[in-house]
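Researcher: I'm preparing a figure for a lab meeting and need a structural model of a single chain. I don't have an experimental structure, so a prediction will have to do for now. The sequence is pasted below. Please return the structure as tokens so I can convert it later.
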Amino acid sequence: MRATLLVLLAPALAAAQEPDFAKAQVETVKIAGSVSMLVGMGGNIGVSMGPDGAFLVDDQYAPMTPKIKAAVAALGPQPVRFVLNTHWHGDHTGGNEPMGEAGVVIVSHDNVRKRMSTEQFLSLWGEKVPPSPPKALPVVTFADAVTFHVNGDEVHAFHVPPAHTDGDAIVHFKRADVIHMGDTYFNGMFPFIDVDSGGSVDGMIAAADRVLQMAGPATKIIPGHGPLATREDLKVYRDLLATARDRVAALVKAGKTSDEVVAAKPLQDMDAKYGQGFIKTDVMVKILYAGMKK
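Model: Understood. Here is the structure written out token by token.
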């Protein structure tokens, strides 16, 4: 994986693994129509650029904002008008404050604003995440869905039941046939499931199933982390999650403790392919166990 795909899930984690923003580069992947993907330090960004301005899905970390704006400017002269956050984690919302200060309209599901407004706790790392500054908070929120008509496209954002968190939004660029899944999809690696924020593996699988129903053979899928994907890639990921869930669930049903489940190595055969990212294989087992016991 490229160093620029480093997965850091909230500002509070930076002390443990400080990203080097000075060296980080932003790569632009043109996808279809007005839509591109920006790969930098943090979650993948979706961009629609056209006469109505730039529409962004997520904005990585605040120190990345000048580089992100430069990458957007290379796509067209129009300013950034909207940022839609797929969930609350800092590697997707860290740029909200400088974007908001510049007059960009920030949009999210209701629960994203709620979580960003109050202190959060990530028990997997024992880390507290402080409330975000007022300018970083979404100013438009929605409960179920919202549609933008920009740059000749119909951009439909919809909430899915708790998956990665309880505030996940999936964004469908209908004309371009591109879907941004946020962190409901980690392509090529085990995902982080934020159980403390209401996430669950069943919800992750359900989110994948919903997109699989929407996607066609030509649909391009932007994951929260990892390379641009196809419907076939997403199906592999969905089946990976289902297999991992079922293996851990069998051990939980047998009355094993968390340490015993980890020691049983139920996902060991997946380690070489999926356990080399930020979420290591034993950590994935712990996440699945915690979610099933909660």
